[in-house]
Design a protein that fits this description.
OB fold (Dihydrolipoamide Acetyltransferase, E2P); six-stranded mixed sheet; Rossmann fold; S-adenosyl-L-methionine; 22 strands; Class I SAM-dependent RNA methyltransferase; 24% strand; 3 domains; binds S-adenosylmethionine; 486 residues; MeTrfase_TrmA_CS
């Protein structure tokens, strides 16, 4: 069948599609009778046989690749066979939707998505290159050196030590428990648990700790965590904890095993010493883990937010340090780390600009704020506040004295919102306060581009911008952009 047809296509039907380009969300774009079809597991330039999976929307349909008729030169054997074309679409493991594409091409596709979103939604014309990080960056450099030396590198880096490029980076993994007790990931675009034999994106220690193939009957999910120090935690999440979000004040929401199957004692709110207290020598909370970034240690809840790629915390800290404009930075201003977590980026600013730096971390999770106050204890001008950023900024706008307003207008605001972005309300508040610069750490290119557009309408412009491949073999990309008053 072809895309030029007169008779209507019924769902589940096989259609032949020419893949034109990449869309946001890890799918590619084709056209069928003029209608946009988002196609999974394809590569731009390919011709594929695909099955229509969703025709419920009038403006676009969704389809899954069943067979590749004309392959792109960038197509490679899937890095995770459980997610590859060999399985029926409903059985393909989710979370590695670019795993069939050569890493370099994955990065250029992510760059295209960011560049396109910035142009269409942000009104910014800038080609963005997505940078490899950690071992993958070194592998690329080695391949370039080989090519320069005439060693005939073919563009597919061969990292040392037998490691497959773009694997072994995930230090946080959430697996789910199926009705038969089997533990596994969800299938792509569904909540069906599928069996897998391996977890190539996870660190080797987590892959081993996952004990794939076992059955679990007292939990609905299993969270796996490996710290930068190599400590592994396996946390079982019960149905009740999963429904309520389950976070105690410690941020803990499940039963945890440490190292080789040792189980942490049950916790209550009274177990929770403030992180400042813990730093001062009170007994450590068993739900606390330690992450190290360079010389600095951060304490946090074992299932609290932490950057997922093993090199992400260092990469983003370095980017925030290097991209923050020194000429616009005033250590005495009302500087902030919004959506601050346990203080990672506030510490980066403190490290760059010195002990007198004033900075307030604002975070909605009270447990994370407790840890942030301890992690930032060495800066006399640092504090951590539990609040929703939108409400916090609205209060600031309402209550700020003329002196506060001057300190806010001179301020640097680091913002690292969740995937949905900061949004119009927060961006407009920052613009009305007239802050000197916003260092925006973004995990969603479209939400970021939309917010850049709102900043531009409010009189800011996009200054430096870098993007990092902190989620190889997935469609995700992390950017750090600086917005300054135009
Ligand atoms: C992407 S994480 C960044 C954390 C921190 N910057 C880091 O790199 O470790 C976003 C954080 O924002 C918090 N958060 C989400 N929505 C929020 C809101 N409306 N107000 C304040 N914090 C929020 C989450 O709990 C999470 O800790």
């Amino acid at each position: 069948m072809s895309e030029d047809r007169d008779d209507p296509v019924s769902p589940s039907e096989l259609v032949e599609l020419q893949i034109n380009n990449v869309a946001h969300g890890g799918v590619m774009v084709a056209r069928l009778d003029g209608r946009v079809v988002f196609v999974a597991d394809a590569v731009p330039g390919e011709r594929v046989l695909a099955r229509i999976a969703d025709d419920s929307k009038s403006s676009f349909w969704r389809a899954d690749t069943i067979e590749v008729l004309e392959a792109s030169p960038a197509r490679v054997p899937h890095v995770w066979p459980a997610a590859g074309l060999e399985r029926a679409p409903a059985e393909r493991a989710g979370g590695a939707e670019f795993g069939h594409i050569a890493l370099e091409r994955q990065r250029s596709l992510k760059g295209e998505v960011l560049t396109d979103a910035l142009r269409r939604m942000g009104g910014v014309d800038r080609a963005v290159e997505v940078e490899a990080v950690g071992a993958d960056a070194h592998a690329d450099a080695d391949a370039d050196a080989d090519a320069d030396a005439g060693a005939g590198a073919d563009g597919a880096p061969e990292p040392a030590g037998g490691r497959v490029a773009g694997t072994g980076w995930r230090t946080r993994v959430r697996l789910h428990v199926g009705p038969d007790g089997r533990v596994g990931p969800y299938a792509a675009r569904s909540h069906q648990v599928v069996p897998v034999d391996d977890l190539p994106l996870a660190t080797p220690a987590l892959e081993q700790a996952a004990a794939l193939g076992r059955r679990v009957h007292d939990a609905v999910a299993v969270e796996l965590v490996e710290t930068s120090q190599g400590e592994v935690r396996v946390i079982r999440v019960t149905e009740e904890q999963s429904k309520t979000g389950g976070r105690s004040r410690a941020g803990a929401k499940g039963r945890s095993e440490r190292g080789r199957g040792r189980r942490a004692p049950a916790r209550t709110g009274s177990d929770v010493a403030s992180a400042r207290g813990a730093a001062a020598g009170t007994p450590p909370n068993p739900a606390t883990i330690v992450e190290r970034v360079g010389e600095r240690e951060f304490r946090l809840a074992e299932n609290g937010f932490w950057q997922v790629h093993r090199d992400a915390a260092a990469t983003l800290s370095d980017a925030v340090k290097s991209l923050t404009r020194e000429d616009l930075f005033d250590p005495r201003a009302a500087n902030h780390d919004l959506y601050g977590g346990v203080g990672l980026l506030a510490a980066a600013i403190g490290d760059r600009f010195g002990p007198a730096t004033r900075i307030t971390s604002v975070e909605s999770d009270a447990a994370a704020t407790d840890y942030a106050s301890g992690n930032l204890a060495e800066w006399v001008g640092a504090r951590a506040v539990t609040a929703r950023v939108d409400r916090y900024l609205a209060d600031l706008e309402r209550q700020a004295s003329p002196d506060d307003r001057r300190r806010l207008a001179a301020a640097t605001m680091v913002i690292d919102p969740p995937r949905s972005g900061a949004g119009k309300e927060v961006v407009s508040s920052l613009a009305r306060l007239g802050v000197a610069q916003v260092v925006y750490v973004a995990c969603d290119p479209v939400a970021f581009a939309r917010d850049v557009g709102t900043f531009r309408e409010a009189g800011y412009e996009l200054d430096a911008l870098r993007a990092f491949d902190l989620f190889p073999h997935t469609h995700h990309v992390e950017s750090v952009g600086v917005l300054v008053r135009a």
